[in-house]
Design goal:
Blueprint lengths: L3 H22 L5 H14 L4 E6 L2 E3 L2 E3 L4 E6 L3 E6 L6 H14 L3 E6 L5 H4 L1 E4 L1 H4 L5
Parallel strand pairs: 5-6
Antiparallel strand pairs: 1-4, 2-3, 4-5, 6-7
Helix pairs in contact: 1-2
């Protein structure tokens, strides 16, 4: 069963994998490189990872043909959006919050690899789907 505790623990595990990838590769590579390496690291740890998942957008009861893609979805629970940019902008935060809402997922992690320390720049997000989960 998915709980707040299980989501939080998974979030810590994802963060640990991102730190490992960053320590190994350093900053300065393309986002796609970090994405492939993080997917590999997560799968190596036994997690189910979907990459470049197409996000359906429904408008006026019609599914729109848009190319909206999520970087990674881990264990069908946590949305992971990766960046390799000098500064995280409000549009990046809005993007992950929207992805979480459209996919009805309780947590998102916005991870920027263009940094000297992942934990300083990583931004976790939760929403109403997280708040509705049982604690344990």
């Amino acid at each position: 069963m998915v709980t707040k505790k299980s989501i939080t623990n998974l979030s810590y595990e994802i963060t640990g994998c991102a730190i490992k990838v960053h320590k190994t590769l350093g900053a300065g590579l393309l986002e796609s490189v970090y994405e492939k390496c993080l997917k590999y690291e997560l799968e190596k740890q036994g997690y189910q990872v979907k990459q470049q998942l197409i996000i359906p957008v429904t408008y006026d009861n019609l599914e729109m043909d848009v190319d909206l893609r999520l970087d990674l979805l881990v264990n069908d629970s946590i949305v992971v959006e990766l960046k390799a940019v000098e500064k995280i902008l409000p549009v990046h935060e809005a993007q992950i919050i929207t992805y979480m809402k459209l996919l009805k997922k309780p947590q998102g992690l916005l991870i920027n690899f263009y940094t000297d320390n992942i934990t300083k720049t990583l931004k976790p997000f939760v929403n109403e789907f997280f708040r509705e989960l049982p604690d344990e």
